[in-house]
């Protein structure tokens, strides 16, 4: 039986048949739905949701009356009350689940509220994405009915505080997954509960011959590690000798391009790559057609979005947003410009800075690409180097040298009375370090005019160290950041940079 043949509940079928209106109308409808549901909460009463609902222009009124938030601010003002078990704070009822999200730059875990309404919206988007496979050409539909190997967090959630559970969103999602998906889900309930990431991988490798996998789902680095372990254990030439029906890789969280070359070395035949944007705060976008320029924003379900131009007017030098930024709605954005994303969701996040930056590549289709993080950019002297620039430069340089660079990170460092960029790249191939440094520098000059200008003035040097992929992974293990949701930060600053330098000093001692 194919997963596309399953009879879905009527409420989901109704949601999937929503008419395709223009994105502006869809988003206003979503906003009104959220406001109506939360108008009797403490947050809704303080910020006069009833008044917003009666307004002729609810989107503008919402922006006028409700302040913007980052995690620290909304936790201090509101969410700490929900963690104490108080109901009806930012969303009706008590919050029973929290997604733990440390991001890639902060040590302390963030507790992101997860509600049944949010999970329901996420499920509808997941089904829509699955149905969008009909838009793809020459794909093996038989593979859709095979196993879905998902490398995510443990479903054995930790009980904390007055009656709530915390864990990775992937673990919460699987724990609350619909019954009809269970036969397809791998690695199964027992292994999914395993909290020790290394043990989980070993158990997956043990079970690999028993499964017929059609989909791989997860962060590229960890999926690649899993495939390498299977190939090594069973002395295979490629992963398709174990799973001949493997046809899809659903990925997200980081750009896939740096991993692609190394990833494809493990395959016996081409597969279809599908990008998603599923954050702890909700399912935001997904690739809905083959060879799309980007991912399509989810505009008609459970998330209202605003877009803050990522520039010096709205953000300071540390990447912190000002108190009253310029915030645009979806019909006001322009293609080719970087925006920081604010979301309001069915879990009580209101005008919340999620921390990602994105760019519209097709406004009519609401297609976006993720360009980085508000905190993960380098602008020591005005070079305004984005993660998108870095990814592209690494991709072009590695293609030109025919090498694989699955991981990298960059730090801005003093250089005499001026400044330098210090790159750290993971590569297990033989590398001409000087040539690679020169190529990355040249590609960045081509990609970024500000960088090219500053390389002639205050940005005096580019340095580069070549490490192994295992060293990058070992650093993540030392920080307790192993598993499906954790990604290596592309830019290192502050405490994380200090820890990285201390780690390397210990690693490189003869």
From TrEMBL:
GO cellular component, as recorded: cytoplasm
TM region positions: none
GO MF term list: acid-amino acid ligase activity
One protein family per Pfam: GH3_M
Domain (GH3 middle) ranges: 298-362
Positions of the GH3 C-terminal domain: 389-493
Superkingdom of the organism of origin: Bacteria
Protein name: GH3 auxin-responsive promoter
Organism: Sediminibacterium goheungense
């Amino acid at each position: 039986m194919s997963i596309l043949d399953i009879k879905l509940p009527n409420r989901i079928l109704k949601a999937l048949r929503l008419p395709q209106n223009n994105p502006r109308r869809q988003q206003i409808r979503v906003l009104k739905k959220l406001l109506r549901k939360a108008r009797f909460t403490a947050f809704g009463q303080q910020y006069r949701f009833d008044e917003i609902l009666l307004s002729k222009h609810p989107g503008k009124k919402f922006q006028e009356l409700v302040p913007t938030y980052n995690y620290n601010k909304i936790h201090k003002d509101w969410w700490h009350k929900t963690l104490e078990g108080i109901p009806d704070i930012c969303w009706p009822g008590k919050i029973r689940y929290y997604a733990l999200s440390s991001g890639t730059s902060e040590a302390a875990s963030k507790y992101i509220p997860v509600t049944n309404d949010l999970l329901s919206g996420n499920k509808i988007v997941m089904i829509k994405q699955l149905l969008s496979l009909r838009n793809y050409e020459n794909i093996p539909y038989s593979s859709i009915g095979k196993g879905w190997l998902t490398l995510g967090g443990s479903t054995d959630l930790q009980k904390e505080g007055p009656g709530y559970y915390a864990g990775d969103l992937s673990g919460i999602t699987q724990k609350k997954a619909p019954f009809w998906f269970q036969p397809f889900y791998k690695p199964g309930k027992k292994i999914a509960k395993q909290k020790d990431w290394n043990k989980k991988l070993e158990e997956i490798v043990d079970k690999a011959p028993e499964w017929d996998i059609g989909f791989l789902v997860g962060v590229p680095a960890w999926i690649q590690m899993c495939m390498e372990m299977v190939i090594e254990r069973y002395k295979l030439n490629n992963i398709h000798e174990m799973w001949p029906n493997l046809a899809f890789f659903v990925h997200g969280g980081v750009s896939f391009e740096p991993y692609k070359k190394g990833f494809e070395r493990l395959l016996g035949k081409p597969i279809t790559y599908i990008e998603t944007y599923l954050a702890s705060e909700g399912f935001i976008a997904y690739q809905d057609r083959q060879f799309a320029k980007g991912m399509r924003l989810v505009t008609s379900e459970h998330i209202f979005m605003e877009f803050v131009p990522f520039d010096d007017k709205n953000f300071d030098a540390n990447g912190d947003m000002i108190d009253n930024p310029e915030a645009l709605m979806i019909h006001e954005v322009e293609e080719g410009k970087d925006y920081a994303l604010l979301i309001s969701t069915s879990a009580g996040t209101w005008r919340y800075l999620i921390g990602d930056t994105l760019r519209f590549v097709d406004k009519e289709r609401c297609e976006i690409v993720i360009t980085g993080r508000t905190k993960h950019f380098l602008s020591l002297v005005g070079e305004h180097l984005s993660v998108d620039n870095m990814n592209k430069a690494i991709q072009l340089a590695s293609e030109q040298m025919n090498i694989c660079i699955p991981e990298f990170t960059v730090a801005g460092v003093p250089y005499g009375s001026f400044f330098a960029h210090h790159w750290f790249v993971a590569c297990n191939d033989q590398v001409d370090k000087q040539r690679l440094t020169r190529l990355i520098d040249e590609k960045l000059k081509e990609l970024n005019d500000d960088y090219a200008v500053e390389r002639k003035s205050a940005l005096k040097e580019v340095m580069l160290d070549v490490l192994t992929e295992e060293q990058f992974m070992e650093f993540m293990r030392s920080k307790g950041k192993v598993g499906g949701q954790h990604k290596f930060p592309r830019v290192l600053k502050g405490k994380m940079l200090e820890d990285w330098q201390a780690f390397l000093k210990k690693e490189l001692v003869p």
